[in-house]
């Protein structure tokens, strides 16, 4: 444990190829194990949640809460490791053959395979906050959402953090040791990442969107609970999280507007599937919040619950469209 915290505190300065490989290997000593540990905690938390939902014994609710608390703490440690990895990678200095001088790249903490992890990390705190409502069955069920995220992360990104950027850095440092032929495409890739990740909206737009997604995840569970239990308390919980998520989503989309103008410069970007999916998501939650104003009307709770569930399906659809289709979003 002492070696791990020493690693977190020891940021390399101006590394060469061998120092970077050593630095990366040290990170890989901990990263896969921490992801696997998070998955184990998530499985345990979900089993405890299911035990409480079926048996309604107080001890299972208490253990479910402690498991959720442990998962949140473990994810925080994992994220500290990732931040330390980003800071270490930012110490690599690259030659700028196009403009002269040198540059370094501090990658935002929610790119490449870390997107889902950031989403889950924020969601884990929202799960803990949900316990304040006193609805133990609902709060316990939120652990099932954490497990779904963990399975996706384990299957797609447990091996190493930032694999694309890591490969570029190592390729560059090898060239710096043996600079016989200038890899122009490598420099173009590095400069592209430099300009993309140095923009202010990359540090604001994605985290706002993912925090909104986390809030919508809680809203989804509340809408399902409302349909199953028909209790107004679930509507109140879902409404609170939906309002918070909608505010951040709207702000995040507005901040992302300059990115859209630059990414689709000279093209008819308004009808792009990526833009359309984003606005579809926003319209679903606009409809949910508008319908919620008439919750006292007969049968309106069913409509709001259905809109909340459909809205979350649009979240999943938008996420897959934005990061799987070719385009600027596919590279971050």
Walk me through this protein's architecture.
The chain has 332 residues and is mostly helical. The protein has two domains: 198 residues, no CATH class; 128 residues. The protein contains twelve helices and two strands, in the order H-H-H-E-E-H-H-H-H-H-H-H-H-H. The longest helix is centred in the first third of the chain and has 39 residues. The chain is flat, with a radius of gyration of 22 Å.
Strand order of the largest sheet: 1-2
Strand content: under 5%
Number of helices: 12
Provide mean pLDDT, rounded.
Answer: 86
Could you list the spans in which at least 5 consecutive residues all have pLDDT below 50?
none
Radius of gyration: 22 Å
The number of distinct structural domains comes to 2
Find the structural class using helix and strand composition.
mainly alpha
Question: Between the first and last Cα atoms, what is the distance in angstroms?
Answer: 32 Å
The ordered H/E elements are: HHHEEHHHHHHHHH
Main beta-sheet strand count, sense and barrel state: 2 strands, antiparallel
Number of strands: 2
From the spread of the alpha carbons, the general shape counts as: flat
Helix content: over 70%
């Amino acid at each position: 444990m002492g070696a791990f915290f020493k690693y977190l505190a020891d940021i390399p300065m101006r590394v060469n190829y061998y120092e970077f490989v050593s630095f990366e290997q040290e990170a890989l000593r901990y990263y896969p194990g921490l992801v696997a540990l998070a998955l184990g905690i998530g499985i345990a938390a979900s089993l405890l949640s299911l035990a409480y939902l079926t048996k309604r014994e107080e001890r299972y609710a208490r253990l479910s809460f402690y498991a959720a608390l442990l998962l949140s703490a473990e994810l925080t440690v994992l994220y500290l490791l990732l931040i330390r990895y980003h800071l270490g990678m930012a110490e690599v200095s690259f030659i700028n053959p196009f403009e002269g001088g040198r540059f370094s790249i501090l990658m935002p903490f929610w790119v490449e395979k870390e997107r889902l992890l950031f989403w889950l990390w924020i969601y884990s705190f929202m799960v803990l906050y949900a316990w304040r409502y006193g609805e133990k069955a609902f709060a316990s069920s939120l652990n099932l959402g954490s497990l779904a995220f963990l399975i996706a992360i384990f299957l797609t990104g447990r091996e190493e953090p930032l694999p694309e950027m890591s490969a570029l850095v190592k390729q560059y440092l090898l060239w710096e040791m043996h600079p016989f032929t200038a890899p122009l495409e490598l420099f173009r890739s590095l400069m592209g990442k430099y300009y993309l990740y140095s923009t202010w909206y990359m540090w604001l737009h994605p985290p706002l969107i993912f925090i909104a997604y986390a809030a919508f995840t809680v809203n989804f569970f509340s809408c399902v609970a409302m349909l199953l239990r028909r209790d107004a308390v679930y509507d109140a919980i879902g409404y609170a999280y939906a309002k918070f998520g909608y505010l951040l989503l709207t702000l995040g989309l507005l901040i992302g507007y300059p990115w859209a103008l630059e990414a689709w410069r000279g093209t008819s970007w308004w009808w792009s599937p990526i833009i359309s999916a984003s606005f579809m998501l926003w319209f679903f939650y606009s409809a949910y919040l508008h319908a919620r104003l008439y919750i006292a009307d007969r049968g309106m709770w069913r409509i709001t619950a259905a809109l909340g569930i459909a809205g979350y399906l649009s979240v999943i659809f938008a996420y897959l469209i934005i990061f799987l289709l070719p385009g600027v979003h596919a590279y971050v």
